[in-house]
Amino acid sequence: METMRERFAATAGELLDSDSRLAVVLADIGVDGFAGAAARHPDRVVNVGIREQLMIGVAGGLALTGLRPIVHTFAAFLVERPWEQVKLDLVHQGVGAVLVSAGGSYDWPAGGRTHMSPGDVALLDTLPGWTVHVPGHPDEAETLLRHAAADGDGLVYLRLSAHRNEHPVDVRPGRFTVVREGRRGVVLAVGPMLDAVLAATETFDVTVLYAATVRPFDAEGLRAATGERADVVLVEPYLAGTSALAAHEALADRPHRVLALGVPKAEHRQYGSIPEHLAAYGLDGAGLHTRIAGFLR
């Protein structure tokens, strides 16, 4: 089964062939996926080695020359480790880039805490101007990457994961998609959480919205799905509560309640597997069913 990272590497290689403005910047991780592209475009596929701060600095420099850098490594090394460079070399300089992460919150439990980044989207929320895509399927990842590469000079974060839904959604960048309609509340499933949300809410009379783009937050889409009184459940594959403020702001003029579900701040210090971590966080179908049912009561 093809992964989002495999689709990303193949698509980015095609984009390098067709758009001379694009460049790829790596820090050892993912290099094998770009071997062919590097042979064809040695001046636009740059591997800086295990130097993540330099990776972002190089991306900023390339952007200052007019190129559109696509930067890839694990989320913990792409957002958290070079945070100062993200803040200064990209945002402060007023240049754009496409940051494409892997690893996410729980993708490689055997890698331990050093390879987990549940706080990445929340951290980017402290800076202005970011578009954040969280695809739930390789097809969506390709659609969103192509959109990001063509997005002028914007700042884009594309969060890839080994956790995925069985089927893709026909996503429109920046807009929520109505997957199921109901009357007793709204459940917003982000990226790879959709399958679990659909299973958990199968017997509930709720609207299920799907978000493959979380920033900008589609306030109009959420408002359209709610009534005069709104019960909203957010189910995100990263730090719980990351989008709670955006949901509250979207519904500020009407009575509402928000239940924010996601990865807790407390560490689970066991290795295990992705399904075991989801169960521990209450983010599998059974855990979501129990928590959403209690909220709706």
Q: Give the tally of β-strands.
A: 12
Q: What integer value in Å does the Rg equal?
A: 19 Å
Structural class: alpha/beta
β-sheet strand percentage? 15-25%
Largest β sheet strand count, sense and barrel closure: 7 strands, mixed
Mean pLDDT: 96
Uncertain runs: none
**What's the helix-strand series?**
HEHEHEHHEHEHEEEHEEHEHEHH
Relative helix content: 25-40%
Assembly state of the chains shown: single chain
Question: How many helices does DSSP assign?
Answer: 12
Largest beta sheet: strand ordering: 2-1-3-4-6-5-10
End-to-end gap: 39 Å
Shape descriptor: globular
What does this 3D model show about the protein?
This protein is of the alpha/beta class and 297 residues long. The chain has helices spanning 4-18, 35-40, 52-64, 75-80, 83-92, 120-124, 138-149, 194-200, 219-225, 244-250, 274-280, 285-296; strands at 22-26, 45-47, 68-74, 97-102, 130-133, 155-159, 177-180, 186-190, 207-211, 213-215, 230-239, 256-263. A seven-stranded mixed β-sheet has the order 2-1-3-4-6-5-10, with helices on both faces. It has a five-stranded mixed β-sheet with strand order 7-9-8-11-12, sandwiched between helices. Strand 5, helix 7 and strand 6 (155-159) form a beta-alpha-beta unit. Helix 9 (219-225) crosses helix 10 (244-250).
Brief overview, please?
The protein is α/β, with parallel strands linked by helices and 297 residues long. Helices cover 36% and strands 22% of the residues. Strands 2-1-3-4-6-5-10 form a seven-stranded mixed beta sheet, sandwiched between helices. Strands 7-9-8-11-12 form a five-stranded mixed beta sheet, sandwiched between helices.
